[in-house]
Amino acid sequence: MSERGRRFVGQPSHLVEAHFTAVADPFDPERNPGGYVNLGTAENHLVFDLLEPRLAAARPVTADDTHYGVLHGTQEFRATVARVLGSSVAVSLDPEHLIAMSGTSAILDAVAYATCDLGDAVIVPAPFYGGFEIDFSVRAGATIVPAQLSSDDGFALSPAAVVAAIEATRAEGRRVGAVALISPHNPTARVHSADAIAELVRVTRELGVHLIVDEIYAMSAFGETPFASALAHGAEHVHVVWGFAKDFALSGFKVGILHTTNVELHAAVAAQAYLAPVSTDVQRTIIELLADDQWISGFLAESRLRLAASCNHLERGLGRLGLPPTGAEAGVFSWADLRAHLPEQTWEAEEDLRRRIFDEAKINIAPASVFHGDEPGWFRITHACEPALIDEALLRLGRVLNSSGDGSR
């Protein structure tokens, strides 16, 4: 086995392992009342009733749809995405600047491979989505360097922390291949301010570093802070990633999108689409789904209303358990503070609590350790599901937090 091959071998991440354990034994109030309640997977289960009629409707199929298409996305598909994505952020997008691949992880992996050499650093504001470790490290061989954000100011994006991490890494003699940001943020569900995004674009340009912005929740912001897309800056060093998994609740379709005006990077990533293209059938399905701008507008508006309602439902339940508000503004989850229920502020104490929640209460929620923050005791809890599932999870969670000998204070 090659050293490269060995990097792919090993235990799956906690997020993946816990997901498949939970979905293999799902809670059902009548058929399986002792099953797992899965609030650890970031999926939107609130809008299938809106999608189903359009997905189930008869659609045209041409001979071209059954043969090889342009590997980084057909012209018609990229034009459709440019129209929808550009409209959502009020920016005119050129389809020639877009690349489609089979999921945002495939896009991020390809961008990492094109911007980083083995051992290069990628600076990421932390906590951050744990899948970035696979996306940036396994094939490209880059190393993630966290730029820690602080709970004291609600994990606000700090360009200064990013600059400090870049300078410290370079002082060690290491090359910084890129800065990677998730916006809106995963796991904190916060929306970064327009000023912070603009400042990060500016400082990365001045420091000569690629800025990769994962905007997979761009159309799922429902709070008071307006979403500010990095697409608005039109900078050659800024590369924006988006997909259909979250905003359109089509995670199973596996469609990721890259926007870049950098000619060399576009060529390098488009060439890698040979390895992970989107099927022409899926492209045709999405083209037909998005043919009606009025339907898109109504769908996204209703999705945001439902996300806000499900978030509020979770927040009220957490409040009844004596837990503080999470401040969630976007996405399908909240970042809950369970630090008061750790006997000591250590990763071992967090893992013990996670194990009790998962093994005893059979609730799947994701702990801070998998998001590479520096404060144990935070948990990401998905709320984009039926209220009854949230209620069942909170009932079980309350029993764990209030049980004798749990070390809470």
Automatic annotation (TrEMBL):
Q: Which InterPro entries match?
A: Aminotransferase_I/II_large, Ethylene_sulfur-biosynth, PyrdxlP-dep_Trfase, PyrdxlP-dep_Trfase_major, PyrdxlP-dep_Trfase_small
Does the entry feature the keyword Nucleus, yes or no? no
Keywords, alphabetical: Pyridoxal phosphate
The record, for Pfam families, names: Aminotran_1_2
What positions does the domain Aminotransferase class I/classII large occupy?
64-396
Q: Give the GO biological process terms.
A: amino acid metabolic process
| Listed GO MF terms | pyridoxal phosphate binding; transaminase activity
Membrane-spanning ranges? none
For this entry, the protein name equals: Aminotransferase class I/classII large domain-containing protein
